[in-house]
Protein 1
Amino acid sequence: MTNHMYLPVIVLLIAGAGFAIGPLALAWVWAKKFSPQKSGPTKNAIYECGLESNGDAWIKFKPGYYIYAIIFLIFDVEAVFLLPFAVAFGGFTMAQSISMLVFLILLVEGLVWACQKNVLSWS
Amino acid sequence: MDEQLKNELRRQGVVATTLQELYNWGRKSSIWPLNFGLACCAIEMIATTMARYDLARFGAEVFRPSPRQADLMIVAGTVTKKMAPQVVRLYNQMAEPKYVISMGACAISGGPFKQGYNVLKGIDRYIPVDVYIPGCPPRPEALLDAFLMLQRKIDEQQLTGPDRPRHLQAELPSEFTVPECSEHDLTPTRNDAIWQVPLVNISNAGKNESGRD
Ligand code: SF4
């Protein structure tokens, strides 16, 4: 039988599932047998350092900073590429140089776009 | 199984135990306190958890910042009337089984501020306290002693039968009334189910244990 190859995997799978389900089942049996559930309005309420929670959790946040963060990230990655690019510049073929320049131009274009959209000035 | 046989077996390298012992051993060896302090006593509580006194030796080093994961509430410090509702609410939000250590004169009775208009005269008016530690502030050794006392208390608890602790009895409450700040005092001023005014009726003195009616 070729199936025998996978037998250890199946055994491990069942043992793994047992480790996950076993404690949960034990806890369930324990709760049924000895320790009754005791829930109540305060216990089920949202935890907020002892204070009653105030207002709605679904509020709007001004995402002002995230565009900065994204632009920073992009140029961070660009710097990582620029360094090896500068080192290996002498040995490049035409096609490699052009593809690198296209990469740079795309990013610079993005910066110009960001500038025009006024996202670089904090308001 | 009687103790003698158990000891004999243990000497031979066989550990015999009961479900109850195992359960109590597990509970008493992993009491996680709730991470909060109220006043000067909290400094001593913090010192107890640090390397010099090392509460971690008893399995209680994990101070949980959420009541959902905590087993023990150490009321360490002055409970002002403004703070009392929050303390009771946090206690209510803790999962069973839960224990309370009332640390210091303030948490027991109001301590040096007993005459103060804004200080609660003992947290036991609202939540059931397991161990009281007198002192102002109690030294870390006193907190360790209280902790060991709580462990002994847990060790003696029954798993079945009418004497089993509150968290095993379905009909006993797990939540207690949260007081509210009103014009002059908290309402209600106490939870009558767990705390009564210690009034002594002189004519009953000596007849029954508490001297009450
Ligand atoms: S009992 Fe003493 S040390 Fe503790 S909180 Fe009260 S005043 Fe501070």
Note: The longest helix of chain A spans residues 7-33.
Protein 2
Amino acid sequence: MAAIEFDGVSKRFGQVTVLEDLRLTIEEGEFFTFVGPSGCGKSTTLSLIAGLERPTSGRIRFDGEPVDHLAPRDRDVAMVFQSYALYPHMSVAENIGFPLKLRGAAPREIDDAVAEVARRLGIETLLARRPRELSGGQRQRVALGRALVRRPRVFLLDEPLSNLDARLRLEMRAELKRLHGEYGITTVYVTHDQEEAMALSDRVAVLNAGRVEQCGPPLELYHAPANTFVAGFVGSPPMNFLDARLVPDLELPRDVALDEVVVGVRPTDVRVTEASDDPRALDARVLLAEPTGDDVWVVGLLEGERIVGRALPSAVPVPGGIARFAFARERLHLFDRASGRRIA
Amino acid sequence: MRRAATYLGVLVVAAYCLAPLAWQLVTSVRTPAELTTLPPLLPTRITIEHYAAVFTGHPFPRMLLNSFVVAGGATAIALAFGAAAAFALTKMRARGFGAILALVLATSMFPPISIVSPLYLLINALGLRDTLAALILTYAGFTLPLAIWVLTSFLRELPDELYSAARVDGCTPRQALVRVILPLAAPGLVATGLLVFIFAWNEFLFALTFTATERSRTVPVGIALFPGLHEVPWGEIAAASLLVTVPVFVLVLRFQRRIVEGLTAGAVKG
Ligand SMILES: Nc1ncnc2c1ncn2[C@@H]1O[C@H](COP(=O)(O)OP(=O)(O)OP(=O)(O)O)[C@@H](O)[C@H]1O
Ligand SMILES: [Mg+2]
């Protein structure tokens, strides 16, 4: 187990800057997630921790010790790759046992460790198979097994669930959380799925184009997003952004003008009805309604801007008609229009 | 109709390729009297005396052994260095990838005849004249560019994440090459190895120049020296030529499936 510290780490590939002055510390035993859109530098961050890439500038420390001179094999990290990267010419058992074999463990010891991990992951019956004879979910377990078999200091997971179907993804998510609880190994997780990040992590860092937009516990990101990027990225469906001039009875801090402000409100906090007695509700033309079971998400058009809200399945407004979109004033997030930064 | 045309095409190509071999076979079993007469097109009587003569009149087994050692040695060296170079170029991200490959290709542009004399001097100076080592080194050097090119295109197809996984799992670069990359590149190694082996097996110019005695003579040179003072033993030459294609034939058959995999690798994803 180890704490991982990024001390002003930048990474460039040629002229392209992929990471810019990354500064943060991942605590020992923490489940830490990097989340962000495709190409924002998540995999690169993991490669830097694993030692597969070197920082262009800055330092990485494990428990205060610089590791920049250490080859991947000397860092004692385990990694599950985006593509799983199982060795096609080895059986499942050989794949899982490979890290131990390289460390010179006795064959008996390897067999025991492989059997133990396989039992834990429910893949005992697959040990003799080759990777190509496995389903996506099974491959993912084997990749996990190969990483878990040697209790590394740090566990790196690069979108391990992205190739699974929705149900298996939920199952494996719970499994990952359980494994982390059991082993207590520092885990750095990467995903572009903010919901997954929220569900799993102790803390989340939102990356955008190589910069950390915000770093904190999931609920903090959700309830107090630092800027419009985080606000729009965290939460599903994404937050609505409205021109402040459209929102009646808006209370602003004293030195802020109305036209400098963007108002954010989460679709969950917007109640859509055909007739509301809330005098402050906004009228918008209904574009479409998406039932999801308990809720129906209603998309409306308000002065040329989209607004999404929630309606009860029993009272869904008809597309084409006018509906009332109501929200409580204490549920609003205010952002500076120019910088995107949070005001209140 | 289309089918018939296809078969006809295959037949024509096969006949074109196999005709010389067939003629060798016919020649090798003719009686000496019929060797230089035409007609008859096919021999009226079949004899194996030429085959017997190959083994009794010449140090044929020794030549075969020499050829095996030379071709095998050259193949081993070309594969070892070719694989290491291809690995460094594709997976270890050596700088100047394109430039290095171009340079490697450039070195194989020289026609052998233009460097045979300087090479001869070099071999002589090293005291390697009339040794198998001279041929092994020469052939390995000559086929290395080919090996590097073919293997580079092979290794490039292997996902980089496999190499990354191997390193995170605890491999040194050399271990990753031997335990992960090479087993997966087996079809490429087999295809490359066969090409090198066949080149070395058939090479004539250097073999003729660098060898002086039967101690190091290979099969092509040996056969070329069959003709005596007064006559050319066509029957024996044909018999010997056929015999030396047998090992290559067996090798190719043995690895046929692997080569096909090799030649088509990269054509389809995964
Ligand atoms: N070896 C490389 N050479 C040049 N550019 C690279 C290299 N590796 C990554 N990049 C670039 O760096 C950026 C970040 O890549 P990275 O793989 O870290 O993204 P990511 O956040 O993991 O994206 P995804 O969600 O699609 O996996 C991308 O623009 C990519 O093109
Ligand atoms: Mg990635």
Note: Confidence is low (pLDDT under 50) at residues 265-270 of chain B.
